[in-house]
């Protein structure tokens, strides 16, 4: 069984989730500073 599709999916989920969380946090920070 080839593990690479799972490894790739894990990276996509982690990086995608991290990007989304960073973006939401950034927007919340900008809103709070106003």
UniProtKB/TrEMBL annotation:
Keywords, comma-separated and alphabetical: Membrane, Transmembrane, Transmembrane helix
Residue intervals passing through the bilayer: 6-29
Name under which the protein is recorded: Heme exporter protein D
UniProt lineage: Bacteria, Pseudomonadati, Pseudomonadota, Alphaproteobacteria, Sphingomonadales
